[in-house]
Amino acid sequence: MFVTSTPDTKARHLSPEHEELVKATLPAVGENIEKIAHSFYGKMFSAHPELLRDTFNRANQKSGEQQKALAASVATFATMLVDDNAPDPVMLLDRIAHKHVSLGIREDQYPIVHDNLMAGIADVLGDAVTPEVGEAWSAVYWLMADVLIKHEKDLYASDGVVNGDVFRDVTVTAKEQLSDRVYTYTLEGDLSEPQPGQYTSVRVELEDGARQLRQYSIIGGDASAYRIAVQIDGEVSHRLYEHVEVGDRLQASLAAGDLVLEEGDRPVVLMSSGIGSTPMVGMLAHLAATEDDRKVLYVHADEATETWAQQAHTEELAESLTNLTVEARFRNDGDLVTVAEHDLSGADVYLCGGNVFLQAIRDGIEELPAEKAPASVHFELFSPNDWLIN
């Protein structure tokens, strides 16, 4: 699922009365965002336990990361509505929409979030949430929801599927160990053609009956099979590692994700850390398969050469990409990635990794003089905290 258009945020405006109320209460909402998120999710999961069991990732809920991400995205959108100097969160919303469609989120689920989010705000801010203030924040939510719903409909339509109908039965036809903590799985089924860099949501049933989901980058494949890399670090990945073998059947979603390699003739720079290498390898595989002759620099950071799970695959692809330069940096050797040492001028830059890595690279790019700046920067985190660096 992919479209070249982005969410339409420019036509969304609050009434003057609502704008003043949101502007006045935005600092309080921002200061209490974690408390609001905790209250909101607690109320929602009490009323709808099936959402925690079958839709939301329980590990992210336990850590609180998903809670902060969703609540903070609403505050970020509100900031844009009341502050002309605030950045447009269009890319943040694009990322959220892709994650929603990969989970099969439907329009009729938005009122559930609205009702419990409003209750969470009222619960934390108390008497400050008058009926008028509640109405103003409700307007913020529905403006944001309208942007997402329309974009998600376009994404579903791009693969010709009914809204939410994204999961397909797949068969595991290969399982391969890449490192102590990373395995690859090949999933065959009636899928859709993935864009280079996209992911699929894999659904497994756990011992307690919960049907948990986790998104994994597609490192190669077509409309009949996705090859994914799985790092063993949560409920879903442990279930795959311990119980899923060749011949077993699972459910996987049609490919989604906004971190997609763009066509063109500009140089390409890929930078990743750890398991963030997976979408990059997917992009390299596409470049090799299409015999693309663009100049490509790939810089990967890892703990050590032993933990670079996709080293062999990367080196194999490098043999067929004559314009590819690969650099590996290992933290155990004290060798860190710095932006200034690389030529990013006029390039399309793609980033994927953890919070610290991604923020450091983004900061380094912002410090570059204009003549050395890239033409574009695209990024994704393997956590729900994308809003932190948007």
Automatic annotation (TrEMBL):
Keyword terms of this UniProt record: Heme, Iron, Metal-binding, NAD, Oxygen transport, Transport
Start and end residues of each FAD-binding FR-type domain: 165-262
InterPro entries on file: FAD-bd_FR_type, FNR_nucleotide-bd, Globin, Globin-like_sf, Globin/Proto, Riboflavin_synthase-like_b-brl
UniProt GO BP: cellular response to nitrosative stress; nitric oxide catabolic process
Gene Ontology molecular function, alphabetical: FAD binding; heme binding; metal ion binding; nitric oxide dioxygenase NAD(P)H activity; oxygen binding; oxygen carrier activity
EC class of the enzyme, as a word: oxidoreductase
The enzyme's E.C. designation: 1.14.12.17
Domain of life: Bacteria
Chemical reaction(s) catalysed: 2 nitric oxide + NADPH + 2 O2 = 2 nitrate + NADP(+) + H(+); 2 nitric oxide + NADH + 2 O2 = 2 nitrate + NAD(+) + H(+)
Coiled coil: none
The keyword Heme appears for this protein: yes
Residue ranges annotated for the Globin domain, each copy included: 13-153
Keyword Membrane: no
Family assignment from sequence similarity: Belongs to the globin family. In the C-terminal section; belongs to the flavoprotein pyridine nucleotide cytochrome reductase family.
Protein name: nitric oxide dioxygenase
Organism of origin: Corynebacterium doosanense CAU 212 = DSM 45436
